[in-house]
Amino acid sequence: MIGLQALFKIRETYIGIAATIAFQLIFFTFWMTAYEGINDRTENLAIGFISEDTAIGKEVINGLQQSLPFKTQDFTSIDKAEKALNQRRITMMIHIPANFTAQLQSGKEANIIYSINQANASLVKSMMEGVAKQVTEEVNHTLFPVQQGEVIKAFSQQISQLPLEQNIAIKVQDTVATTIKELKDQTVTSTIIKTNDVKGFAANFVPLMVIISSFVGAMVMIMQHQQAAEMVQHTVSKWSLFFARQLVNIAVAFILPLLTIGLMQLFSISSDESFFTIYLFQALMFWAFLCLAQVFVIIFGNGGMVFNICALSLQLVTSGVLVPNAMLSDFYHRLASLLPATYGADGYYTIIFGGSAENLKNNSSSLGIIITVTLAIATLAVALKRPKMAQQVEMTIPQ
User: Taking burial as the number of CB atoms within 10 A of a residue's CB, which of 79, 201, 264, 343 is the most buried?
Assistant: First the structure.
């Protein structure tokens, strides 16, 4: 009992209990509200269409655009469609080849090609594969009578050109009937191409793992540095202390990527990007995390860790690694554009799975903007605070 009484005389004991409660409340609140109604927002996902067949293929595309519950975009060339797919502006491309109508008219199987970008959240990838299967079934159901009609029409034209007796006509009719019965009800097949695919199931979790480990690490580091700063703030000027902390942040941010890249190599996580590209991107991302976590602590002191817990939960929800932020509500979708994890996750999808290098540059630029803004806010907060050294002197001057 003596030990229990001693613990409850210390403020940190209550802070630890409060932090546990805060984690529960914050994570439940943000995650449940962010993911509410996600299935009702599938129309925010985009699918691209390109038809090189100007007859039945074009009609199929028109029908799909009206029936599918997604945003649709037409493309005039495969190169443009593939570029949009790599940049994740569309989640799947549906391509109908030029010989689609000819294959149907000749009684052969026609083919629809589906390209699905694997550099996306697992939810989107599995959803698009299901859509591809469903589309193929619906197209088959629609086109089987069309193919039957085309075959009957072709036989009728040939028969009409021949002077036939009754017994011969009966034989021809039997032949036509037999031919129609032999037609397959699966007139259209599907080919699913998984672009930017990587081997190994674990690779799918690298963006999420990097986001969690980087921001939690940044939170803990900033918290410890805040405690250290409070211990020396009476002997060091506020600006000297502030700039010293920034130097430490920069040093750690540009050393940590060596460990990150080393661990990726250790666990056979490969990338087509260069060592320097991955190094610089990871450094910018971790620096942005440090700057974000630092702002709340500088403004609110140790109480700023509550805001960092909120930031952790929000970034996991809105980063796009679990659920694409296009499917989130408007509030969370707009919030995602302000948080570094959104750009970090998107960049790591490019690093791990491949895709457009332009995406990586844009994400790096966005991280740079976040670093600049958060540093400016932190600098302003320090400027508005009275230095502890001055307060110490005022307290010691006799009145």
Answer: 343
Token couple for 51: 């038809």
Residue 23 lies in a domain: no
Task: Report strand pairing: 92-96 vs 71-74.
Answer: unpaired
Q: Which domain holds residue 364?
A: 201-391
Q: Which residues contact 82 (CB under 8 A, 6 or more apart)?
A: 93, 115, 195
Predicted confidence band of residue 260 (pLDDT cuts 50, 70, 90): very high
Whole-number Å distance between alpha carbons of 171 and 255: 84
306 domain residue, yes or no: yes
Contacts of 269 (CB under 8 A, 6+ apart): 200, 202, 203, 206, 352
166-182 helix and 122-160 helix, angle to the nearest 10 degrees: 170
283 burial via Cβ count (<10 Å: 0-12, 13-18, 19+): buried
118 and 191 share a domain?
yes
Cβ(195)–Cβ(332) below 8 Å: no
Domain end (from 169, 195, 221): 195
Regarding pTM above 0.70, the answer is: yes
pLDDT, tens digit, 9 for 90 and up, residues 295-310: 999 999 888 888 999 9
DSSP 165-196: -HHHHHHHHHHHHHHHHHS-S--EEEEEEEET
Q: Which of 352, 354, 344 is nearest to 200 (CA)?
A: 352
Out of 140, 171, 195, pick the residue that ends a domain. 195
The one-letter amino acid at 121: A
Same domain, 142 and 236: no
Q: What pLDDT, in 10s, does the model give residues 148-190?
A: 666 666 666 665 555 656 566 566 656 666 665 565 567 788 9
